[in-house]
Amino acid sequence: MIAGSMVALVTPMDAQGRLDWDSLSKLVDFHLQEGTNAIVAVGTTGESATLDVSEHIEVIRRVVAQVAGRIPVIAGTGANSTREAVELTTNAKTAGADACLLVTPYYNKPTQEGLFQHFSHIANAVDIPQILYNVPGRTACDMLPETVARLSAVKNIIGIKEATGNLQRAKDILASVSSDFLVYSGDDATAVELMLLGGKGNISVTRQRCTAPHERSVRSGHAWLCRDGAGDSRKSSCRS
C-alpha cells in the first residue's frame, strides 16, 4: 500500500524556462535521504499544466529511473483530454511508475457523469493503479462523494487525493467507499485531521523542505489512528 508522508515534487526550471535536470536529480536524492514515503512527479506542483507532453513524460521517466524502486513513484497523468490522459498514463506505466494521479478535467466543467466516464475510460484503457485527484479550488470542477463511490468500484482505481480541505467531505467519502480504497489528504492544513478520520497519508507541498516536521505530523496521525481504529469512520484495521 502506498501511504504516509509523500511529496508533490516541484519540477525545477532555469531562468530561460528550460527543465533543470541537475536540480531535479538533487531534489529526488534529497527526498530519498530524508525518508519521504513516496514521490509524486508532475502533479500540480510539478508544472503538469505547463509542460508539453514530451517534457511531462521525460520528467516521469527520469524520476522513476533515479528512484529505482526504493520508494513508490506516482506519476501525474491527468489531462483535460481523455485521450491525452490515456497517452500520459500509458507512458507512465511504460516508464515504470507505481501508480498514476489523475486530476479532474479543468476549465471544461464536466458533469458528474462526464467525470465517471472520463476516469473509468482511462482505468479500463491502462492497467496501472490510479488515484483520483479532486482540487476544485484550482480546476473549477468538484467531484462529489457519490461519483467517487461509483469510481471506487472500477478496476485499477485505488484511491483519491482529496484537496478540498473540507473534513466533512472526507467523512462522506470514507463512509461511501470500502476500507481498501485509499483516501489521501491534498491539503496540508487538514492532513492530520483527515488521517484521524481514516485517511492513509498526505501528498504534500510543504514537504519540499519541511521533511522531518511533516513526517512526524503524519506519523502522529497514523499512530493515533492505530489505537483501536480511533477516529476511523469505517472502523477499519490499521495497515501499513
UniProtKB/TrEMBL annotation:
GO terms for biological process: diaminopimelate biosynthetic process; lysine biosynthetic process via diaminopimelate. It holds the Pfam family DHDPS. Gene3D superfamilies: Aldolase class I. Keywords: Amino-acid biosynthesis, Cytoplasm, Diaminopimelate biosynthesis, Lyase, Lysine biosynthesis, Schiff base. GO terms for cellular component: cytosol. Its EC number is 4.3.3.7. It catalyses: L-aspartate 4-semialdehyde + pyruvate = (2S,4S)-4-hydroxy-2,3,4,5-tetrahydrodipicolinate + H2O + H(+). The keyword Cytoplasm applies. GO terms for molecular function: 4-hydroxy-tetrahydrodipicolinate synthase activity. It comes from the Bacteria. Pathway: Amino-acid biosynthesis; L-lysine biosynthesis via DAP pathway; (S)-tetrahydrodipicolinate from L-aspartate: step 3/4. It is an enzyme of class 4 (lyase). Belongs to the DapA family. Catalyzes the condensation of (S)-aspartate-beta-semialdehyde [(S)-ASA] and pyruvate to 4-hydroxy-tetrahydrodipicolinate (HTPA). PANTHER family: 4-HYDROXY-2-OXOGLUTARATE ALDOLASE, MITOCHONDRIAL, DIHYDRODIPICOLINATE SYNTHASE. This is 4-hydroxy-tetrahydrodipicolinate synthase. It comes from Pseudomonas amygdali pv. mori str. 301020. The lineage of its organism: Bacteria, Pseudomonadati, Pseudomonadota, Gammaproteobacteria, Pseudomonadales.
